[in-house]
Amino acid sequence: MNDTRSKGRRSRRRGATGADSSASFAQRPFTKLKQTYQPVAVASEDQLEAIHQASLRVLSETGIRVLLAEARRIMREAGAEVDESTEQVRFDPDLIMEKIATVPSEFTLHARNPEHSVVLGGDNVVFDMMASAPNCSDIDRGRRTGNQEDYRNFLRLAQMHNILHVLGGYPVEPVDVHASIRHLDCIYDYITLTDKAYCVYSLGEDRIADALEMTRIAHGLTMEQLREKTCLFSIINTNSPLQLDIPMMQGVIDLARMKQAVVITPFTLSGAMAPVTIAGALVLQNAEALAGIAFSQMVNTGAPAMYGGFTSNVDMKSGSPAFGTPEYMKAQHVGGQLARKYSIPYRSSNVCAANTIDAQAAFESVFSLWGAINGGANMLMHGAGWLEGGLCCSYEKTILDIDLLQMVAEFLRPLDTSEDELALDAIGEVGPAGHFFGTAHTQARYRDAFYAPVLSDWRNFESWKEAGEPIAIQRANAVWKQRLAAYQAPSLDSAIREELDAFMAKRKAEGGAATDF
Amino acid sequence: MNDTRSKGRRSRRRGATGADSSASFAQRPFTKLKQTYQPVAVASEDQLEAIHQASLRVLSETGIRVLLAEARRIMREAGAEVDESTEQVRFDPDLIMEKIATVPSEFTLHARNPEHSVVLGGDNVVFDMMASAPNCSDIDRGRRTGNQEDYRNFLRLAQMHNILHVLGGYPVEPVDVHASIRHLDCIYDYITLTDKAYCVYSLGEDRIADALEMTRIAHGLTMEQLREKTCLFSIINTNSPLQLDIPMMQGVIDLARMKQAVVITPFTLSGAMAPVTIAGALVLQNAEALAGIAFSQMVNTGAPAMYGGFTSNVDMKSGSPAFGTPEYMKAQHVGGQLARKYSIPYRSSNVCAANTIDAQAAFESVFSLWGAINGGANMLMHGAGWLEGGLCCSYEKTILDIDLLQMVAEFLRPLDTSEDELALDAIGEVGPAGHFFGTAHTQARYRDAFYAPVLSDWRNFESWKEAGEPIAIQRANAVWKQRLAAYQAPSLDSAIREELDAFMAKRKAEGGAATDF
Question: What fold does the segment set B39-413+451-517 form as a domain?
Answer without folding.
Answer: TIM Barrel (3.20.20)
